[in-house]
């Protein structure tokens, strides 16, 4: 079932949500003031960041840590804190700094483009 | 007789006025009459004056209010006479049936000129037949005699079934009640 | 064959609930509803129903448990009165908002104080804006019939709205009357199997009930709820038509009684409609042009039927068994009056508050009222709009 539109004729009865797992559609990336940067070359694939991330924002591809889902990452820094001291594959940088860097800007833009369905109420 | 027969019961808490009104309603209903049976609910306790009502008719009953102008008044306890207005609103040709060992003439002297007065010693009959001073079933026997609204044998057969439900395995109580109804039917006196 | 029985209103409602055989009943006893819960619980222990009977510790919990059960996918029912209904307050709104088809018997009783256990409509009238369908019953027969129809109405796929079926406390709930009851299997067929659309217990298709709904969508959900109420009248009539085929008893949203040529009329709901009909019968024998409009369904408010029924009348007395304390009449008065103001020549309308706390309203009271209305037709002087029937003036 999908919403046809947002009018009172289209909404589900009583605000019922028949789409399980729809919290993915609720983007919290713009809550972030600092962002983690993942250094692939330093990562030892221990999964500590993936275990501790409260927003399931560490992405996994083919059973490997593959990066950060910036649409949902709130920038809490837990991943960076949990990353083993000798490794430091995750570093927190200011959001302003990230946006200003060309790489950071590209990343933010591609996040938006990859986005799937429009968020629901 | 008017289309709807209106009946008012006066008793004291514990004497079975409500049960009597319900037994009468069930029996008249079983005889294909339209009926109502309901008590006046107040803060009643054992011994406090209580009131219950019946309506009986050959047509559906629309009224949903207390009976204020009864055709028949039944008084389960003669000590209520003179204390509360048992004859209030009684129709001129109405029937007043009182549980007392006094004669109708004695009661008439107390009440003045109103309706037709009948008496029956329902408590005495209840003590002898049921063994307890619960006058409601004998009053129903007397009621049937003075109003001819129901057939006695039909009423006895019906009441037997109803009492079986209420007093499972207590054959003596059931038989006592039925005997009380028959005796009161015979012994009720009119002026 | 349908069966003739002698029953009290409470027994009739409990019987209807046995025949409906709901999956869940969560209820808490309160006078004058107690017998319904008591009798139904004996049906449960005698295994005459398959119902999960939840003995909750309060009415707030009774409604909460009914909501939970209904959301889970159960056919859920309950019953209450007066303060019990008041105690359910916040959750009855939630039941309606979540579009849960719960059917509840409300045995009308005054909302104290001073403390009172007898009939008036202050309890259910207070809940008139909660989003529940409200059906008022004149007698035990109607209470029984309305409970059964209530299931079909509530569960209708276009509605999914909870239904309150009321009857007057003691006057109907505790009075023995004749009624016709249907066979168990006929009731079972009529209500059909309940097929919930979004049961929480369907773990293959998980759903969320009652999410946070702020100014982004709350209004749309309320508008949709209002739309369900707007079309409910038509569905209530359809269900009544089906029920008539089964029972032979016909029901509408309102019941006009001798209104065709009437000059004066009462508008009334509940048991007093019966007493007033007996008055109309008596006055018609005398050739008086009097009539009556009984409102059976108060929510949704049947304004079209009311306008149609009351056009052409000269004086209409609108009876309220509760006071809104607006000092401008009771709730029935205000809504009926506002509906008929669209008539080109609306009748003179008077508000009569009556029967509070179980105050008996008898034939004589209502005959007097009709007499007063005829006087107004004669004099053309309406006098005081707000009147109190049967209160001691001296």
Structure in words:
The complex is a heterotrimer of chains A (121), B (191) and C (394). Chain A is of the alpha+beta class. In chain A, 24% of the residues lie in helices and 16% in strands. In chain A, the strands form two sheets. In chain A, strands 1-4 form a two-stranded antiparallel ribbon. Chain A has a two-stranded antiparallel ribbon with strand order 2-3. In chain A, strand 2 and strand 3 (64-68) form a beta hairpin. The longest helix of chain A has 13 residues, at 102-114. Residues 116-121 of chain A have low confidence and may be disordered. By secondary structure, chain B is α/β, with parallel strands linked by helices. Chain B has a single domain, classed as Pyruvate-ferredoxin Oxidoreductase, domain 3 (3-Layer(aba) Sandwich), CATH 3.40.920. Chain B is built from six helices and seven strands; from the N terminus they run E-H-E-E-E-E-H-E-H-H-H-H-E. In chain B, helix 2 (104-111) links the parallel strand 5 and strand 6 (116-120). In chain B, helix 3 (122-129) crosses helix 4 and helix 5 runs antiparallel to helix 6. Chain C has 394 residues and is α/β, with parallel strands linked by helices. Chain C is built from 13 helices and 15 strands. Chain C has helices at 9-20, 34-45, 59-72, 82-87, 89-97, 122-126, 140-155, 184-191, 218-247, 272-285, 303-310, 331-340, 363-379, and strands at 3-8, 24-27, 52-55, 76-80, 103-108, 133-136, 163-168, 176-181, 254-257, 264-268, 290-295, 297-299, 315-320, 348-354, 386-389. In chain C, helix 2 (34-45) links the parallel strand 2 and strand 3. Classes of the chains: A alpha+beta (121), B alpha/beta (191), C alpha/beta (394). Chains in contact: A-C, B-C. The interface between A and C is medium-sized, with 13 and 24 residues. Strand 2 (34-39) of chain B pairs antiparallel with strand 8 (176-181) of chain C.
